[in-house]
Amino acid sequence: MTNSPQNPILLVPGIDDTARIFDKMVAYLSDRGWSAIHPLNLQPSNGDVGLDHLAQQVQQYIDRHLADADAIDIVGFSMGGMVSRYYIQRLGGGQRVQRFVTLSSPHNGTWTGYLRQNPGASQMRPHSAFLQDLNQTMDELQQVEFTSVWTPYDLMILPANSSQLAVGRMIQLPVLGHPLMVTDAGSLATIADILSGQPAPQPASV
């Protein structure tokens, strides 16, 4: 499959993850014609700094490595989706991003945020000040082509439907677990369709 025109893609990982979590996704998209794929490492990725600070790393990477691109696409997995939202909504990223995809991101918080007592995890708890701030102005996501992809079988994002928002497009997939969202064949096909500007296929019912 050849996709034209193609935007550079920035892949933003989740908590405790590195860019390597996207190896299968990078190979899949490369095989389908994308040439400018940028998996990002966030430092530190364990929640010891706030997601707003990690969003500054996203901004710096884009300014340094993607400054010449007319538009970029971002795929954020789990915490990476929230980091990317902050970049888009608070750091001017909406002027650079065309398509924005979140994979199992806790837009409305997750109870697993209470398992760690650090700034990043605290910001992902339900009703945190960080999430309330972003969600009060979620309409700002309408300046990009926003899609949230999620699975009801998620045991990391609790409740799983926290990954839904009242803006953009929501796609529910029957993926059997949180980490599989970046490797499952159906998930990868859905992401490729979104990034190529094609209508996403209808997922199997769950």
Question: Your description of this structure?
Answer:
This protein has 206 residues and is α/β, with parallel strands linked by helices. The chain has a single domain, classed as Alpha/Beta hydrolase fold, catalytic domain (Rossmann fold, 3-Layer(aba) Sandwich), CATH 3.40.50. It is built from 6 helices and 6 strands. Helix 2 packs across helix 3 (79-90). The longest helix has 15 residues, at 51-65. It is globular and about 40 Å long.
* Structural class estimated from helices and strands: alpha/beta
Question: What is the CATH architecture descriptor?
Answer: 3-Layer(aba) Sandwich
Give the helices and strands as they follow along the chain: EHEHEHEHHEEH
Kindly estimate the percentage of residues that lie in beta strands according to DSSP.
5-15%
Segments where pLDDT lies below 50 for 5+ residues? 202-206
The CATH homology group name = Alpha/Beta hydrolase fold, catalytic domain
The order of strands across the largest sheet is 2-1-3-4-5-6
CATH class identity = Alpha Beta
Record the SSE blueprint:
Layout: E1 9-12, H1 23-31, E2 37-39, H2 51-65, E3 72-77, H3 79-90, E4 97-103, H4 119-123, H5 129-136, E5 145-150, E6 169-172, H6 185-195
Parallel strand pairs: 1-2, 1-3, 3-4, 4-5, 5-6
Helix pairs in contact: 2-3
